[in-house]
Structures are given as structure tokens and as C-alpha cells.
Amino acid sequence: MPPGGSQVSTGVRCWGLIPAAGVGRRFGAEVPKQYLALAGRPVIDHAIGAFVAHPGIAGCAVVLGAEDGWWADVSAYAGHPRVLRAPGGAERCHSVRNGLEALAQRAADEDWVLVHDAARPCLRRTDLDRLLEALQDEPVGALLAVPIADTVKRADAGQVAETLPRSALWRAYTPQAFRLGLLRRALDHAATKDLIVTDDASAVELLGLRPALVECSADNIKITRPEDLPLAAFYLEQQRETPC
Ligand code: CTP
Ligand code: MG
């Protein structure tokens, strides 16, 4: 992998990390959802492509499950010189931890790592740029997120226990960007407490730190259930027609 990549500040590089070791249980297809076809290429290639195409990203680690029989056959990035592979773990947080280990062979502890779900194929270049911009002078790290539009209830035994103040609630999306050394320490800390964190920011928050929220387009959806795939196709078509 050539050195290159963006310099958020002198000598500091930015890397992508794509966890792709899930099996897509909620989606329920025979093939893990990241390998389903979407607008002419696999879902995962849309996610990786956003990073490989960006001149500010030095390289990318992709984390694959032990049973993965698809990557080499369907991804255009298999064998790509700026994409390295890492082995998956039992949960997303373990997969990310393994990806950091692989990146550490090339990246420094101070480098930024942008963790992005393989199942999020609609990331806009403008949102990636906005996140990279937010990392200038950012002491902790930052994640793309969207303010919640619906009124949110907390449930208790099928009844409303409380209506939460919506103005303070955001959906956490990816990429989520942290310095390699800090994220490794945060995930190790969560593991010592036997906590399974569902995003990278949660692990950093457990250290008492407060990552920045960077508002992004709501079309940066994660494909979770079957109805999400045609929605992603629609968003990609919209982006193609009105690029920004
Ligand atoms: N992921 C991973 N390693 C795991 C579990 C998930 O790398 N052990 C990845 C998935 O491949 C996905 C991202 O983390 O790109 C977000 O996870 P999710 O949407 O939950 O995907 P799955 O775990 O595959 O889906 P499900 O929970 O429905 O089984
Ligand atoms: Mg999952």
C-alpha cells in the first residue's frame, strides 16, 4: 500500500476500516447482505469504493468472516493494493479490533481510522469530506449522525414509560473516526468489562470522552432488512442524478 493519503495535519494519515464479517441474520438472505447486488456491484464495493476513491485516505482494511466464501469471487477490491484483509470476530466490536491490529502494521497510533459498515453503501463524498474536515483540531474523534425526526418513546412492558426530549437525540451512523491508538485502547477497555458495544463511539464514551457529532445526509442508511435494499438503490440513483 503506498504511503500517500490525506494529511489532516502534518504526518497524520487517514485510513478506512470496513467491518464486513457479519452474516446478515435480520436480512435473512442466503448470502450475507454485504455481498448482495446493488446498482451493478456488491453492496460492500460501494462502501469500500468511497474510501479507495478518496485522495485523503491512505488505505483501507476490510474485515472478513472465517466462513466468507464470497469476497474473492465478487469484490472488485479483492487483491487491490490499497486494501488489506483482517479476520472477523464474534461481534462487530471484535471485528473492528482485529481490523485495527491489521492497520497497525502500516498506520501510526496518531493516525485517524474511519470505521464504516460494509452494509452502508450510500455514503456521500460530501459527508466524508465533512467528517474529515471536522477532524481538524478535534481532540477525541467524530461520527456522522442524523437528528431524530420522530417522537421517541421509552417502553416498559409494552406501554409508554416516557417520551424522550427529541431535540437531544441523534441516530449514530458511520463512518466513525478515532485515532488508531485511542480506539484500540477503548475497545480493549470495553472488552475487559465484558461489554459488547454496537458502535465505535460507545467504546470511546466509556473512557469518559465525548466524540463530536457531524450531521450527514439521512440517505447514509445501513442495510439491515430486505426493504432497505431497494431503498438504497433509490438513494444511489438519486445521488447519480443530482451529485453533490
Ligand atoms: N460485522 C462484523 N463482524 C461481526 C458482526 C458484524 O464485521 N461479527 C459488520 C457487518 O458485516 C456490518 C456491520 O458490522 O457491515 C454492521 O453490523 P450489522 O448491520 O449488525 O450486520 P450483521 O451483523 O451482518 O447483521 P445481523 O445483526 O442482522 O446479523
Ligand atoms: Mg449484527
Can you tell me about this structure?
With 244 residues, this protein is of the alpha/beta class. The chain has a single domain, classed as Spore Coat Polysaccharide Biosynthesis Protein SpsA, Chain A (Alpha-Beta Complex). It has seven helices and eleven strands. The protein has a seven-stranded mixed beta sheet with strand order 5-4-1-6-10-7-11. Helix 2 links the parallel strand 4 (59-64) and strand 5. Helix 3 (92-103) runs antiparallel to helix 5 (180-192). The model is unreliable at 1-7 (pLDDT under 50). The protein binds cytidine-5'-triphosphate and magnesium ion (MG). Residues 19-27, 34, 63, 88-92, 95, 117-119, 222, 224 line the site of cytidine-5'-triphosphate (CTP).
List keywords for this structure.
disordered N terminus; binds magnesium ion; 244 residues; Spore Coat Polysaccharide Biosynthesis Protein SpsA, Chain A; single chain; binds cytidine-5'-triphosphate; 7 helices; seven-stranded mixed sheet
Outline:
The chain is of the alpha/beta class. Helices cover 28% and strands 24% of the residues.
